[in-house]
Design goal:
47% helix, alpha/beta, single chain, globular, four-stranded parallel sheet
């Protein structure tokens, strides 16, 4: 798609755009969504090739025009259902090899057929009921442990396969109730409504479970509104309980080049997401082993990180985005780590 877009731009529009002093940019859809909401230019035309994502962003922007962006006082947590639950990642995705008729046959029954031409994009999504159930159990477990409201985002009104998700959610809720475990309060809504709820009318403490592509986009939007993509930390959990704690943002290539050019003397990376990931990992390890001192240390590390930013000691990517910009103190990565260490020692 990028090849086609940029070929059309170069052949038909580049000269005219540049003569007007305008610019053309191509970026990943999650980064584009974050920029639309959190840091838009004064005037811009946005091309969103994914129709469902485009609708969500359009509805969100209309709500933001009407109500504005609320103060950043809510804690936003997202749970993404990744490969195995039906989405772009981990599914069948390729162009058609030739002209013809594409049929989808499940257990010998023809479910769908349509004509395709060579090069047409083909995306097939599948649902693994057990993977979905494991995900829903994780959602309810985390929400109960941290006392969070749950807002699921599903397309079940117009995507038949999403009925599988709502059926599993109901089944898990019933199983938990039968076992004497009360599931947290939850709602099921369309992803567009879920996004609007998360950004324009968030409860104090909520969890937003979404399918993988929606979650990818929503997490970038919420992190950007919070100040920086470097403030979002991630936990990935497999069906067998193996967990990965990470900073899901990109590699900040421009900052890395500066780090190399100065022989390591200028390091302006924001280590917040990585610190939070370490704290989450230590907390989980402590809970699994019944190690209360380790759990307490992990909690204190998170609090020290939050208190450091609250005190106005920040890296450059958060400049002007704290509650009191006039009292901000911009530091490099080492200065930020030193400040967190001082908070931790208190």
């Amino acid at each position: 798609m990028r090849t086609v877009i940029e070929e059309i731009y170069r052949q038909e529009y580049q000269q005219q755009v540049e003569s007007l002093g305008l610019a053309y940019h191509y970026e990943l859809i999650d980064a584009q969504a974050a920029r639309i909401v959190a840091n838009p230019p004064e005037r811009a035309l946005w091309g969103v090739p994914d129709n469902t994502t485009g609708r969500k962003l359009f509805k969100l922007v209309e709500q933001l025009k009407r109500y504005g962006i609320p103060k950043r006082e809510a804690q936003v947590s997202l749970s993404r259902m990744s490969a195995g639950g039906g989405d772009q990642y981990g599914s069948y995705n390729m162009p058609a090899a030739e002209d013809g008729i594409l049929k989808v046959i499940v257990d010998g029954e023809e479910k769908h057929a349509r004509r395709v031409k060579e090069g047409d994009p083909i995306l097939l999504m599948s649902n693994d009921a057990q993977a979905i159930k494991d995900w829903v159990l994780q959602v309810f477990r985390d929400a109960s442990r941290k006392k969070k409201e749950v807002y699921f985002g599903l397309k079940r009104e117009y995507m038949n396969y999403d009925e599988v998700f709502s059926t599993v959610i109901t089944d898990v809720r019933y199983e938990l109730a039968q076992a004497g475990t009360a599931p947290p309060s939850f709602m099921i809504m369309r992803p567009s409504s879920q996004l609007i709820k998360m950004i324009t009318d968030p409860p104090r403490n909520a969890l937003y479970p979404a399918q993988n592509l929606d979650g990818d986009i929503f997490s970038d939007i919420s992190a950007a509104l919070g100040g920086s993509l470097a403030t979002a930390s991630s936990i990935i959990e497999s069906k067998n309980g193996t967990m990965l704690f990470e900073a899901p943002h990109g590699t900040a290539h421009d900052l890395y080049l500066k780090y190399q050019e100065t022989d390591g003397k200028e390091a302006h990376f924001n280590s917040s997401a990585l610190l939070f990931a370490v704290a989450n990992a230590l907390e989980t390890l402590g809970e699994r082993e019944g190690n209360d001192p380790l759990v307490n240390y992990a909690t204190q590390l998170k609090e020290a990180l939050i208190d450091t930013v609250d005190a106005g000691i920040i890296t450059g990517d958060l400049k002007g985005k704290t509650a009191n910009p006039d009292k901000e103190q911009i530091v490099d990565m080492q200065g930020f780590l030193d400040a967190v260490e001082k908070q931790l020692a208190r």
